[in-house]
Amino acid sequence: MKMIKFGFKYILKHKSNYFSYVISNIFQSSFIIVIPFIEGALIDSLTNIEILRFTKTIIFLLVASGISIFNQLANRYLYTILQTKVSFEANLASINSLYESSYIEFSKKDPAILNDSINQDCNSIVLFCINSVHSFLLNICSGIFIIVIISCYSRVISLGILISLALYSISYVLFKEKIYDKETRLKEKTSQYFGKLYTLVYYLKSIKLNGLKEFSFYKIKKVYEEFYQEVKNRQMIHSFNQGIRQCQYFCVNCFLSN
User: What is the pLDDT of residue 67?
Assistant: First the structure.
């Protein structure tokens, strides 16, 4: 929770940019749902040979597609600007805290590894805070929009989707910090792993002169095993989440195709 507060402390300094980005994402999500329906209406108008309806539908499709493309470009721009500004401010604040601390606390740490660790931690916190909340809102808005459309055809299916949406919301609230902790641990292990590789080369002369090669290689293997385990754990969680999403998309597509 402290990490999330840390991220939003700097994100909310750019409220207009952040909320514009969130709204842009919601619009983009609605276009992803709406455009296939317009395409379906276009095919129906061709089947029924209704020239006026076909003309109106294709104009509407072109306008919607144009707005979607423009919104997507604006969305990427807003994201890049927001991520760059917030990451810079978070990194600068973290480095500033070093100047306010005792030099003895971090004097034994390698400056390159310390700087890399600060950059990775700050960037991961910022990216998580930017993406997690807006992804949650997107899924909620998309789910509500789909429920409204499907309820016109089947209330039973819309009720099922509503239940799954509620379960998704509960699971997000319960597991968001655990997922973030896994991401943070992976970042830490990644930094440690590449830091150890760096020290093997940087202190090559000292290691050879003192006969510490075997010991140094033993330590790097231990760090690698921890890093490898975190990679596997993170990938399992990612695969599980992707599997759930694919199942949801498959069910909705099966319904729409029928």
Answer: 84
- Over the Cα atoms of the chain, what is R_g? 25
Q: Which two tokens stand for residue 5?
A: 């507060």
Q: Taking a C-beta distance cutoff of 8 angstroms, is the pair 201, 113 a contact?
A: no
User: Chain centroid to CA 168: how far?
Assistant: 16
Residue of 114, 116, 127 whose CA lies nearest to 87: 127
Q: Tokens at residue 164, please?
A: 């799954």
CA pair distance 138, 127, nearest whole angstrom: 16
Where in the chain are the domains?
2-257
Give the predicted TM-score (pTM) of the model.
0.58
User: What is the tens place of the pLDDT at every residue in 45-91?
Assistant: 667 666 777 777 778 778 878 888 888 888 889 888 988 898 898 88
Can you give the three-state secondary structure of the chain, one letter per residue?
A: CHHHHHHHHHHHHHHHHHHHHHHHHHHHHHHHHHHHHHHHHHHHHHHCCCHHHHHHHHHHHHHHHHHHHHHHHHHHHHHHHHHHHHHHHHHHHHHHHHHCCCHHHHCCCCHHHHHHHHHHHHHHHHHHHHHHHHHHHHHHHHHHHHHHHHHCCCHHHHHHHHHHHHHHHHHHHHHHHHHHHHHHHHHHHHHHHHHHHHHHHHCHHHHHHCCCHHHHHHHHHHHHHHHHHHHHHHHHHHHHHHHHHHHHHHHHHHHHHC
Q: Determine whether domain 2-257 maps to CATH 1.10.357.10.
A: no
